[in-house]
Specification:
This protein has about 325 residues and is α/β, with parallel strands linked by helices. It has helices spanning about 35-45, 55-65, 75-80, 90-100, 120-130, 145-150, 165-175, 185-215, 220-225, 235-240, 255-270, 280-295, 305-310; strands at about 25-30, 50, 70, 80-85, 110-115, 135-140, 145, 155-160, 175-180.
């Protein structure tokens, strides 16, 4: 019988194998984040097995630098002590793990799965319980920093796991960035969603305030420099907007639809706790309206277009 989910650290349902040698790794999900993360593991000297998903180009680049190609997630798992996932959302995690040729068909009872996707902590707990039934350890370890920091191997990594399992995989995580142990299964995803709630709301606050300043005739660069020294200072205004909105391009960056997906996961988790998040609910609706205008693939700073339209000025 499946044990019911409950908050707080969960008991360890499997024997944790001690670290005695460098583990063989597998990586599933070679997208904008996954490819540079996998490259960091190769630079750190790990033996890495990968499989193509939608496109072969990332796989071929990784194979060219030492990765080993496998046919599918099951074959990746069969060659690995630890399998790492970095895919868009919970349905892709489900397919990668439990699909017809999913990793579960190749995982050994003493192996581990690190899910570095951003998904609901509720889904993470469910995946953990299902894998525990196969004697497989689970870690949720979403990241923050974007493709640039993924390439540098300097990501912020938020980790939920049983402590002995974290100790087992910590060296692997450190090859991709700085891991922070936050508690039991689901806590990594919870803290990542905290980050996404904040940036979703802060971006909207910046856009609304800066279009207000523009409408009043202020010079935006002067405004930015002053606010950088005031209590309204924030990372989005100081570091992100100069590379996107202020630079005249919303290409690249962090896609609005990915942020919408994360905010939806946060709202879903909040509902299970009976906790209302009215500002975040409004933010979700504002991003959804902008996405409906065809901007879902653009950086989420494109929300500024909505405020420019309200102001009657759609060009900074």
């Amino acid at each position: 019988m499946t044990r019911p989910l409950r908050p707080g650290p969960q008991p360890c349902l499997y024997k944790v194998r001690p670290v005695t040698a460098t583990p063989n790794l597998g990586f599933i999900g070679l997208g904008a984040m996954g490819e540079p993360m996998a490259a960091s593991l190769l630079r750190a000297g790990f033996r890495l097995t990968v499989a193509a998903h939608r496109r072969r180009e990332p796989l071929e680049r990784l194979v060219g630098t030492g990765a080993i190609e496998a046919a599918d997630p099951a074959a990746v798992a069969a060659a690995s002590d630890i399998v790492i996932l970095c895919v868009p959302d919970a349905p892709q995690v489900e397919q990668s793990l439990f699909g017809e040729r999913g990793a579960v068909h190749g995982l050994r009872r003493d192996s581990a799965v690190i899910d570095m996707s951003t998904i609901s902590p509720i889904a993470s707990k469910t995946f953990s319980q299902r894998l525990a039934g196969h004697g497989v350890q689970f870690v949720d370890a979403p990241v923050s920093g974007g493709p640039a920091r993924a390439k540098e191997g300097t990501l912020t990594i938020m980790v939920g796991a049983d402590r002995p399992v974290f100790d087992r995989v910590e060296t692997v995580l450190r090859a991709m960035g700085t891991p922070y142990y936050l508690g039991g299964i689901g806590m990594g995803e919870t803290v990542k969603l905290v980050n996404q709630i904040i940036i979703a709301n802060v971006m909207i606050a910046n856009a609304e305030a800066l279009v207000f300043a523009r409408k009043a005739g202020a010079d935006l660069e002067a405004v930015r420099k002053v606010i950088a020294t005031a209590t309204g200072s924030n990372y989005v205004l100081d570091q992100w907007l100069p590379k996107t909105w202020f630079a005249g391009s919303f290409e690249g960056g962090f896609a609005m639809d990915l942020l919408r997906k994360d905010v939806a996961a946060a709202l879903d988790a909040a509902r299970t706790m009976g906790y209302a998040m009215p500002a975040t609910g409004l933010a979700y609706q504002l991003y959804t309206a902008r996405s409906a205008e065809g901007d879902g693939a653009l950086d989420y700073s494109a929300i500024a277009k909505s405020y420019e339209r309200i102001a009657g000025d759609e060009a900074l």
